[in-house]
Structures are given as C-alpha cells and as structure tokens.
Amino acid sequence: MTSSSLRPRPLQRANSESTRPAEPIEVLCQRYGNQILDLIPQQLLDKAKDITLADMLGSEITTCETISWLINVVKFTKFYTLNDTPDNIEFYQELLGIKNLLSTQCIRDCFKLSDALRVEFKSTKQQSYRTNVFLKPMAPVKRQQVPPQKPFAEELTLLKAKQIIMSYIKKCRENKQNDFTFIDICEVIEKYHLEGDELRWSSKDQTVVGNDTVQWKATISNALQFFQNKEDLTYITRKNVWYVLPHYA
C-alpha cells in the first residue's frame, strides 16, 4: 500500500511538453527496485520464509500465477543490468533453470487459465455475489520444515572430467567391459563429483547450452571426444555406445 507519490512517473514521450529527458529503463529498474526493497518490512520477509517457490508451484490455487510470474522474471530481468551482482546472476540462473523445465503444454494451459481468470474478475455481474471461501477461519496447520538445500559443488572442469573418464576406461579394460553408454558415464561422473548425494550441481553447470544440454553434460561430451582423438575410445553410432579400444604398451 504505497502512496501515489512513490509510484514511478510515466516516461516522457517525444511530443511531451516537458523538456526533461526520459530516463533509461535500466536506471528506473535500479532506482525503483532498491526503493521497493526498502519499503518491504522485515516482518513480511520473515513470514515469507515459510512459503517456498515449490509450495507456490505445487498448489493448484497458485501454480498458474506463479508460472506467469516466473516467465515474467526471466523475460524482464535483462533490464536490470545495473544490478548484475554475482548473487543476482546466480539467483537468476537458478530461476531460469526452473523455468526451462516447464513444458510448452504447461505454459499454454497456464495462459489459458490466466486469461479466463482475468475476464471473470472484470465481470461486475459475477463480483456482486461471489465470496472468497479461502477467507473462512480455520484451524492453524503446522507446516512441515523444509530441509536445507545441499551446498553447491565446484564447477566440473574439463580436466576433472578427463581424469574421471580415464579412470573409468582403465576399469573397463581391467574388467573386460567393452563399451558403455553416455548415460553410464554421466552417472559415474555425477556420483563422483557430487560426492554421492551430498552436493548439487553449480549454477554454471546447470546452465543450458546448445541442443538443450546442460553445461556439465557438454563438458563430459568434450572429454569423451578428447579420448576418441587419442584412440582410447570410439563411438559406434548404430548402437549408441562408446567402445573401449584396447591399450597397447
């Protein structure tokens, strides 16, 4: 509930009587973004900690608007270039990773429902008698504690991927295992790099690169190509497997 004096004034158009130049959108985003943060009380932030993004996406009464919000965040964040701190960049990339998991059908259905809700809300005929059942008093519900997030692992480098793959190739030769799939080696590297299930992939490793592939899998592909060039491996297309070539001393 901010006063009208705190609302941003509309940008001046070219034919406006005012001679004051229009401010760049990046400047407005920085100024009002910081100003809005200052207006949010700590009590609100403390209360909001009990509700997660997973809660919002997991409820049928909030998932539609939450998806719409998530899409808008990804779409408009490019205008906040003056707020490109490392924390904000990492936070944005995590949100982008979540948004990229939404299917086209999910987004399409979300927009259909969102449009229908707005039409219904604007109908004065309906608003005259419709009551909000969610305002009824109810017994307090004890929320389950959300487990803490796992810490980020270090970025998977090409060197580390090569080291793990080399060890795996030696093991295959010792056990007379002739081939393996890309999924096999990804599972091996993921288990090793994330220390079983103690860590989670870094934000950079979760970044989507070419062909809808995340960064850490692209790094593994590059490492496999390295061993193919060294004639330790060869890829058999018809079987979709990596064949382990024999080692000659």
What does this entry look like structurally?
This protein has 249 residues and is mostly helical. The chain contains ten helices and three strands. The radius of gyration is 26 Å and the shape is elongated. It starts with 24 loop residues before the first helix and ends in a 5-residue tail after the last strand. Mean pLDDT is 84; it is low at 1-18.
- Count all strands and give the number: 3
Enumerate the strands of the largest sheet in spatial order, edge to edge or round the barrel. Answer: 1-3-2
Q: What helical percentage do the residues reach?
A: 40-55%
How far do the termini sit from each other?
77 Å
- What percentage of the residues does DSSP assign to strands (E)? under 5%
Low-confidence stretches: 1-18
Number of helices: 10
Shape: elongated
Would you tell me the structural class of the helices and strands? mainly alpha
Topology as a string of helices (H) and strands (E): HHHHHHHHEHHEE
Largest sheet: 3 strands, antiparallel
Please tell me how large the radius of gyration is.
26 Å
Nearest-integer average pLDDT:
84
What's the structural blueprint in terms of helices and strands?
Elements: H1 25-39, H2 42-48, H3 53-57, H4 63-76, H5 86-99, H6 104-122, H7 124-127, H8 158-174, E1 179-180, H9 182-193, H10 215-229, E2 233-236, E3 241-244
Antiparallel strand pairs: 1-3, 2-3
Structure summarized in a few sentences:
With 249 residues, the chain is mainly alpha-helical. Helices cover 49% and strands 4% of the residues.
